[in-house]
Amino acid sequence: MNLFDPFVVCIITLVGLALFGLPIGHSMIAASILYLFLAGLDMGTAAEQLLNSMFTSYTMLAVPLFILAAEFMNSGSMTMRLLNFSNALVGRFRGGLAQVNVLQSLLFAGMSGSAIADAAGMGKVMMKLMTHNGKYTPSFAAALTAVVAVVAPILPPSIPMVIYALVSNVSIGYLFLAGIMPGLLITVSQMMLVGWSARRQNFPTEPPVPLRELPGLTLKAIPALMLPVVLILGLRGGMMTPTEAAAVAAGYALFVSMVVYRDVGLRQFYDSLQSAARTTTSIGMLIAAALVFNYVITVENIPSNINQFLLSFELSPLMFLLMVNVLLLLVGALLEGTTIILIVVPVLLPTAHALGIDPVHFGVVVVFNVMLGLVTPPYGMLLFVVKRVSGAPLGAILRDTVPFLLGLLGALVLITLVPDIPLLIPRLFGYSG
What we know:
This protein has about 425 residues and is mainly alpha-helical. It has one domain (about 40-430). It has 22 helices and no strands. Helix 6 (about 95-110) packs parallel to helix 9 (about 140-150), helix 10 (about 160-170) crosses helix 19 (about 360-370) and helix 13 (about 215-235) runs antiparallel to helix 14 (about 240-260). The model has no long low-confidence stretch (mean pLDDT about 80).
């Protein structure tokens, strides 16, 4: 390996800057510009790639609009209405509040599309409720909150799914549909593990909500629960493009919060716009940097070379998928999820296509792996989020995470081996894969 090769210098620069604390987006842009300089290419190409990719992509607009929809929902009382609805359904069972935590994550997923938003928002509320009066240890509450937050970006609407669609040219609507069965599988597996832990550690139940109150609580939660339904029907009915669906989601969330629930005023509206803008800027910088770095990878012909290398092993589709699982789990422990989808996945896609792997199934497997990286040390962003909120030692959180993490790995293996699980609902809506 020639250490003075422009691409090698680029990679060393990227890693070095990131290790010194520079945000990964800035590191990728700096390393890419250095590569263009050393390779004798026009450094203005970096700006050209950024502008052409960012400002000519209609699909890209879906990302800030879904973020805005989540902000509108979080600024009002939607989260507490979903919490009350979840408590009425499962709070009466052993480990009641823990079961509520799992169920509210499933319901809240349709509002946020982000695991971090789930854990930092509703997850924070759940951790406080679970640890009140010593019902649950802080480490257990934090571990459960981190793990169940993984479901948010798998169910629609999902920002990682949108970004995967951007790099793979796969239908966002079918990707959203493909996330439903895996999301339900994760929820069921985690609720079973909570029941097992509750019996083993004698966790308490919650006072049962009278059945006569359930219709009223359901009625109050229906406007929030309808968002994913509106999106899926609009996308699959051909009434909306993905970007239009994101705009409808933002408008629907604003209408429900301001008109139906009447708990969001002009001040909350302005705060939501500010928060959405900050989040969009952060993600936008990362996407822009990845697009520039992808140009470098294309110039070096990396995807084609890796494709030929992998095909030379005559891997079966199953062996390739298992290899991808291992690779993404390892990379996910070190890199942020959006970075992986934008940088690593385009390198793997040509081989997946050559082996005849369904792109929608592959997308679900990729996003699932990326989300697992959020609860896998040493990166494990979700672990650090819940540690900061709960104040529990990281070692104790990691110990309590293990059983739930094993449940997630089991669900991943099942989804990998049985493509019919994620593809069941898309096929009901006309998908031919």
